[in-house]
Amino acid sequence: MDDVWDTSAWDVVKRSFPDDKNGSRVILTSRIANIGIYASSGSSHYMQCLSVEESLRLFNLKVFGRETFPFELEKATKQIVAKCQGLPLTTVVVAGFCSKISKMENCWEDVAHKVGLIVNRDTEECLDLLALSYNHLPHHLKPCFLYMGAFPKGFEISVSRLIKLWIAVEYVRCKPEKDFEEVAEGYLSDLIERSIYFAKSNVIVSPPVASFEHRIIFNFGVAPLTHIEHVDSFITFTNFKWLTVLDMCFQPFDHLPSEIWELSQLRYLSLSNFSVLPPSVCNLRHLQTLFHYSNQASICLPAEIWVIKQLRHLYFRKCCYFPNVQSEQEDYLLNCPVLSLTKLQSLSYITFGSITRGIFEGMPNLRKLGIRESEEERLTAKQISGKLKKLKLTLRGCQLPWDQMTILCTLPKLEVLKLKDYAFQGSEWEPTNERFQQLKFLLLDGTDLIHWKASSFQFPKLEGLVRKNCYCPYEIPEDVAEIPTLQFIELYHCSSTADDSANRIQEEQHSIGNDDLVVRIHKFYNCELFMLSLNFLSCKDQLIPYCIYSFVLFVWQLNLKACIHLIFSTPSQQAMRLMQRF
């Protein structure tokens, strides 16, 4: 049964196919994943995009049949097939076009540059199939599907951003016991299961940990659907007072237009290149998402930020200073409703100085928190509240000693922990009574940690362990393999010692029948230069030996921290001897 759209179709015919235990099979094909789940007690087979070899075989079969493939067209053919991106329908359409043109090399090279035009121009089948998919969509999914038509063909957008935009334009209906983000994730799952959106999984975070950390690719146009009414597009607005989405994160501004703060209906605002948010931001009473993408100075938030009760997401690429509350007034102000953002879910990055006593009491639904170091401020046990639940925490450049990890154990619902750019500093970490009860994902990115322990006691529910840019000669703790929930270990640009230890753990697990543990190792292969941003933490060590021991061959950007005096000198004899090894 081909192209089944509804479970009722299977209900009608299934009685005609009794199970007589004679090995017969019924095959159903559908664009909706739930059809297969409904019809079969076994697992469904999900079709994947064609590989390069499969695409070439399909293309050559449609163009040449049993004829001999011309060798001179091999290069152009591979270029054409690559632009079809493994999509069978696109491959068949382009192959049909190529079968009707001259088999001259220059003609096929021209096709390779115009694959997209050929698909859009010469096939009604693509448009009919697209319209069929649209017509079978539930009403609540249709505007979400059409929303991607505002972006260029092939545009990639993060799931997080897409969901926030859907919520901002009120395409998501809230349900009991679920917030907008959870409902929107369900919408997105439906569209992916119907093969309308294509997802590329993020290889750093496994699906069980963060099922929606993907990138969505919209690979077909919506030309046949332009007649659909009642679909908003902020691009065509003439009266800006009703604007709900304003994204200018890549637009250079010397100063922000004051008119922005008069757009009272804004729900999504993304800006860059400003260091002070004016008090007039309180005019944006409906604002849900505020992004600041500048890499320049940190931004200061006015006290009026607490007035925007609809805020759900605050993101600052550098970091932000929350308005300071005088200690003698703090208890009074915390009881005042103005100091509460009850709908806030994500907050990144803020400075330690912003974390005053009780600040998180006014953020009961905070799930994601990012903290960045600032000047000489340091984390204390009282600065992070146990009120934070279902938390995703990122610490960057804090230079804390590893014994401060005991503070993070007080967060009972901490599920994702990312430590970046020497968030913790030191070569040894020996957790004793530290126990991360709910932690599912741990990222160590840029650290000098060599000796550490990790077992099922410390991480009883850990699913993914990732280390990045750690060039010191460390080994993955063998006890990690004892964690029953562990699904993958992933290493990015780490020392060969670390790679060998990870491979050894995988081999040992496979030898005892645990084939579920996956080890992925990513290296800089075939690179002329190895360039990275290096955080050099202390003037006590010589820079060149530090780089050599850390396998740093070329330094692109050097960030100096806690250096009073900087002196450039020629390499010592010891450093020269080290360099001769490479």
TrEMBL record:
Matches recorded under InterPro entries: LRR_dom_sf (IPR032675), LRR_R13L4/SHOC2-like (IPR055414), NB-ARC (IPR002182), P-loop_NTPase (IPR027417), WH-like_DNA-bd_sf (IPR036388), WHD_DRP (IPR058922)
Stretches assigned to the NB-ARC domain: 1-66
Entry's Gene Ontology BP terms: defense response
Residues covered by the Disease resistance R13L4/SHOC-2-like LRR domain: 232-324
Keyword hit for Transcription: no
Cleaved signal peptide residues: none
Keyword Phosphoprotein recorded: no
Gene Ontology molecular-function annotations: ADP binding
Keyword annotations: ATP-binding, Nucleotide-binding, Plant defense, Repeat
SUPFAM superfamilies per the UniProt record, alphabetical: P-loop containing nucleoside triphosphate hydrolases, RNI-like
The Disease resistance protein winged helix domain, residue ranges: 151-196
Record-stated family: Belongs to the disease resistance NB-LRR family.
Name recorded for this polypeptide: Uncharacterized protein
